[in-house]
């Protein structure tokens, strides 16, 4: 299996990979990006270059004279999602990979990912690590490389993917048939396009993280002209895109995601309800469907654009608990949040309890929402538990019926909350900023042991120990990292340690490797006797 | 304080290529490959035109191959880029020392030590120049200050002992050499110097 993926594999040997390269006004860099795609050791490619209006690039594309290139020349700028969809309609590959017009892959990029998807994992998507290249734009437009850093080497985390993207498209390859499930790119988006499709992909597959650096993306120091950077400056537009992404769910069934039904426990429709609904829309990132059990007259008055809302007509004389019961009959998700009016709705308002029940909840246990109190009870419970309680004790309040049915309610414990890794990372970086390098290093080491992302955390810890003057630990950790995945910054760090240890020959060897990395590429295989495979990991998320 | 460190982290990100070349130059200098060191420092200077480090490196590499004029020019550029660059003044002092201009060298070593009393090159250079000039008081002070910060540095303990002896402070020399030999019992130079000190003290006693 692996043999046919070796460098030089010809067309027909190994699955076809469709490479999508949309381009807009990047004529200067397009040639370099395209050359890096054509220089792949894995040869069975079809490379779609989609000019999305802007500068003419036909001559650049045709100058390569490579039959694997499919050039789509659109006069009008219709946006990146539209370009990708047009190319996908023509793509034949088993897998799809992406390359932006100003970035570059190393020659092993496609080979690494095809090998991973074909032989190392059952995931339908895989990604590698990339260098972020800080560069200075010279007057002639050329980019002078100042540094290359693997700033994030994060294992896949489904819950995080719902909140924020941590897999760059340039590093990603996935099965093309995933689009049958996720649907195409959302053409109304003009930013965060990667996240949109990654988030929807996470409903159906884990992402396999390959600990190898296979390309780079550029970050000019001043006046970035990256479209994503420019558009992020418009905060309203940014929020519009974020909300659109968070509330767009792919069609069911979802193999890897369990929906949440949010039932609003309402006795009337007023302005406060409207404000609450807006807050739910804005602050909820876990996939949900919201049920509004209200009398028909109220529903007729309801004027709301919010997606994923199900209006449930109820008897105007019914109690709030009876209305919840009616909505519960319609709710089909395995988890239900019962939300009273007046509950504070802010970031993580429901996700804390959802995370706790997904990760840790045993049967017959539910989790209180933040801000819930006597007279304002709200919680996330299993639908089965809630239905059983309401069937057995319909005359009691929702809260009392659950208690009577033996469903224990509690607040999530600190260790059950989401994003603990991110909180510790924030603490570690704060310690660095305050100059407490030893504390930072210890935190990073602990995080690597407890929360995955081991190589990334070892890299952070090695640097912190070096700054703290603890050469022994900096040496040990940087050597461990470089044996698995040498990068410019960790090679430089180990070289500094070795120089202080007066091992000049060793330092020179590492620095020359780092210099080579800055010029183009670094050793991409582990040192002899080491296995990267044992360090590869997939975080399955919730 | 917080933002300064954050800026330093940011600076680290932006100077990586420069750092690689500067480190490489320093390593090549340490193993005596001065032509490669020269190449690295020149590239580092092009990436960090405001940094004195590559020019100090170029000066050191030139000094090692006895190109005193090139060395002096490089050290002077470093001083211009950073008037508080102790290494650049130490380099200029070494150039003057090689030219046997001991008073000039002495002043430049002193300037270097004013900027960084921790600079071991300047300290030991000052020791050598002092021996040539027979002027010990100032260098004794600097060596004492250095030893307060680095109490186990046997090379400086030895130098200071020798200076004590030359300055007629045989008792101080003896105590320091005994401390040194506690740390390094097999240090033959220290053993020999201790014998000389004891001989001197015995001679003084007889007189």
Description of the molecule:
The complex is a heterodimer of chains A (542) and B (207). Chain A is α/β, with parallel strands linked by helices and 542 residues long. Chain A has 3 domains: 3-129 and 152-211 and 224-246, Spore Coat Polysaccharide Biosynthesis Protein SpsA, Chain A (Alpha-Beta Complex); 260-416, Spore Coat Polysaccharide Biosynthesis Protein SpsA, Chain A (Alpha-Beta Complex); 420-535, Serine Threonine Protein Phosphatase 5, Tetratricopeptide repeat (Alpha Horseshoe). Chain A has 21 helices and 16 strands. Chain A has helices at residues 27-38, 58-62, 80-90, 109-120, 158-163, 178-182, 193-201, 227-232, 235-246, 271-283, 296-301, 320-330, 351-359, 383-392, 398-404, 420-433, 437-451, 454-467, 471-484, 488-500, 504-519; strands spanning 17-23, 45-52, 69-74, 95-98, 104-105, 125-137, 143-149, 172-175, 207-220, 260-265, 288-294, 309-313, 335-340, 365-368, 379-382, 408-410. In chain A, strands 1, 2, 3, 4, 5, 6, 7, 8 and 9 form a 9-stranded mixed sheet that branches. In chain A, strands 12-11-10-13-15-14-16 form a 7-stranded mixed sheet. The two termini of chain A are 31 Å apart. In chain A, 45% of the residues are buried. Mean pLDDT of chain A is 90; it is low at 1-11 and 522-542. Helices cover 81% and strands 0% of the residues of chain B. Chain B has a domain at 1-83: Serine Threonine Protein Phosphatase 5, Tetratricopeptide repeat (Alpha Horseshoe). The longest helix of chain B is centred in the last third of the chain and has 19 residues, at 188-206. Chain B is an all-alpha fold and 207 residues long. The A-B interface holds A 134, 144-149, 221, 432-435, 488-489, 492, 495-496, 499, 502, 504-505, 507-508, 511-512, 514-515, 518 and B 1-3, 5-6, 9, 13-21, 23-24, 26-28, 30-31, 47.
């Amino acid at each position: 299996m692996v043999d046919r993926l070796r460098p030089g594999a010809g067309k027909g040997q190994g699955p076809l990979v469709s490479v999508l390269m949309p381009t807009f006004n990047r004529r200067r860099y397009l040639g370099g990006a395209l050359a890096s795609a054509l220089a792949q050791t894995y040869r069975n490619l079809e490379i779609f270059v989609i000019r999305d209006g802007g500068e003419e690039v036909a001559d650049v594309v045709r100058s390569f004279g490579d039959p694997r290139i499919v050039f789509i020349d659109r006069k009008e700028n219709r946006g990146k999602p539209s370009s990708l969809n047009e190319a996908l309609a023509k793509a034949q590959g088993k897998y799809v990979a992406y390359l932006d017009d100003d970035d570059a892959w190393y020659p092993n990029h496609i080979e690494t990912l095809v090998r991973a998807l074909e032989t190392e994992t059952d995931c339908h998507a895989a990604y590698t690590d990339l260098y972020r290249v800080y560069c200075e734009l010279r007057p002639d437009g050329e980019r002078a490389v100042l540094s290359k850093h693997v700033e994030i080497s994060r294992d896949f985390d489904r819950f995080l993917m719902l909140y924020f993207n941590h897999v760059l498209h340039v590093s990603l390859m996935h099965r093309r048939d995933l689009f049958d499930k996720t649907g195409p790119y959302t053409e109304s988006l003009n930013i965060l396009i990667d996240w949109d499709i990654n988030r929807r992909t996470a409903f159906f597959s884990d992402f396999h993280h390959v600990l190898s650096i296979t390309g780079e993306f550029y970050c000019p120091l001043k006046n970035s002209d990256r479209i994503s950077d420019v558009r992020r400056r418009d905060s309203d537009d940014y929020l519009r895109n974020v909300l659109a992404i968070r509330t767009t769910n792919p069609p069911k069934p979802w193999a890897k995601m369990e929906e949440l039904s949010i039932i609003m426990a309402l006795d009337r429709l007023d302005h406060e309800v409207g404000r609450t609904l807006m807050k739910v829309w804005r602050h909820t990132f876990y996939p949900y469907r919201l049920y509004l059990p209200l009398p028909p007259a109220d529903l007729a008055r309801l004027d709301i654009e919010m997606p994923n809302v199900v209006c449930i007509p109820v008897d105007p004389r019914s109690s709030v608990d009876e209305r919840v019961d009616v909505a519960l009959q319609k709710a089909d998700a395995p988890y239900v949040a019962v939300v009273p009016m007046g509950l504070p709705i802010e970031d993580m308002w429901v996700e804390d309890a959802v995370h706790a029940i997904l990760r840790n909840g045993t049967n017959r246990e539910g989790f209180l929402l933040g801000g819930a109190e006597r007279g304002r009870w709200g919680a996330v419970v299993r639908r089965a538990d809630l239905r059983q309680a309401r069937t057995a004790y319909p005359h009691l309040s929702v809260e009392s019926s659950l208690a009577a049915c033996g469903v224990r309610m509690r607040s999530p414990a600190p260790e059950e909350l989401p994003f603990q890794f991110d909180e510790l990372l924030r603490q570690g970086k704060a310690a660095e900023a305050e100059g407490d390098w030893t504390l930072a290093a210890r935190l990073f080491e602990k995080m690597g042991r407890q929360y995955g992302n081991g190589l990334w955390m070892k890299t952070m810890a090695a640097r912190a120990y070096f700054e703290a003057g603890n050469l022994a630990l900096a040496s040990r950790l940087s050597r461990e990292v470089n044996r698995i995945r040498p990068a410019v910054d960790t090679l430089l760090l180990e070289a500094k340690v070795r120089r202080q240890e007066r091992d000049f020959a060793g330092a020179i060897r590492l620095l020359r490797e780092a210099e080579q990395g800055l010029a183009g590429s670094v050793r991409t295989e582990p040192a002899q006797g080491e296995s990267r495979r044992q360090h590869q990991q997939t975080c399955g998320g919730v | 304080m917080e933002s300064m460190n954050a800026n330093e982290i940011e600076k680290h990100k932006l100077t990586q290529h420069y750092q690689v070349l500067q480190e490489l130059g320093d390593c090549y200098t340490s193993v005596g490959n001065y032509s490669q060191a020269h190449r690295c420092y020149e590239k580092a200077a092009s990436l960090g035109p405001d940094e004195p480090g590559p020019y100090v490196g170029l000066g050191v590499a030139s000094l090692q191959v006895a190109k005193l004029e090139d060395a002096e020019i490089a050290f002077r550029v470093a001083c211009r880029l950073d008037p508080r660059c102790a290494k650049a003044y130490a380099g200029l002092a070494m150039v003057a020392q090689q030219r046997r201009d001991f008073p000039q060298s002495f002043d430049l070593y002193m300037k270097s030590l004013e900027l960084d009393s921790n600079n071991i090159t300047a300290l030991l250079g000052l020791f050598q120049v002092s021996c040539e000039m027979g002027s010990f008081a100032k260098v004794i002070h600097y060596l004492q200050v250095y030893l307060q910060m680095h109490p186990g540095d046997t090379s400086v303990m030895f130098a200071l002992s020798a200076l004590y002896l030359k300055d007629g402070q045989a008792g101080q020399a003896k105590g320091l050499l005994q401390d040194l030999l506690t740390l390094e019992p097999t240090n033959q130079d220290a053993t020999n110097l201790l014998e000389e000190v004891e001989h001197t003290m015995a001679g003084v006693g007889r007189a």
